[in-house]
């Protein structure tokens, strides 16, 4: 079964061609090719908490530690962690 990427789960519409791109820009998770395949996702779609410029509560976030701590409360973060268990990975 194909795993969901963050933009699919959160329906932020910041993927290339998405309806929120003109307002908020393309989400960097959708284009972060260095993370392609991590946790079974496309580009950074399953490690979004490690990528600057992704959304948290409709605000663009940095890569600071407050971002990661707030991301750990996110339902998508928890979903990836549950689905991937010990195989769960981050990019640094």
List keywords for this structure.
single chain; 92 residues; mainly alpha; two-stranded antiparallel sheet; 4 helices
Topology:
Layout (H helix, E strand, L loop, with lengths): L5 H5 L10 H4 L30 E2 L2 E2 L4 H7 L3 H10 L8
- The parts where pLDDT drops under 50 for at least 5 residues are none
Taken in chain order, the helices and strands follow as: HHEEHH
Q: Please count the beta strands (DSSP E, at least 2 residues each).
A: 2
The SS-based structural class is mainly alpha
What can be said about the biggest beta sheet?
A: 2 strands, antiparallel
Strand percent estimate:
under 5%
Question: What is the overall number of helices?
Answer: 4
Structure explained in plain terms:
The protein is mostly helical and 92 residues long. The protein has one domain (6-84). It is built from 4 helices and 2 strands, in the order ααββαα. A two-stranded antiparallel sheet has the order 1-2. Strand 1 and strand 2 form a beta hairpin. It is globular. It starts with 5 loop residues before the first helix and ends in an 8-residue tail after the last helix.
In short:
With 92 residues, the protein is mostly helical.
């Amino acid at each position: 079964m194909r795993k969901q990427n963050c933009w699919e789960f959160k329906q932020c519409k910041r993927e290339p061609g998405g309806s929120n791109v003109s307002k908020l820009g393309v989400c960097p998770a959708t284009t972060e090719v260095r993370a392609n395949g991590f946790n079974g996702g496309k580009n950074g779609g399953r490690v979004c908490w490690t990528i600057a410029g992704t959304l948290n509560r409709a605000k663009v976030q940095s890569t600071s530690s407050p971002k990661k701590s707030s991301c750990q409360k996110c339902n998508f973060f928890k979903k990836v962690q549950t689905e991937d268990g010990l195989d769960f990975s981050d990019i640094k």
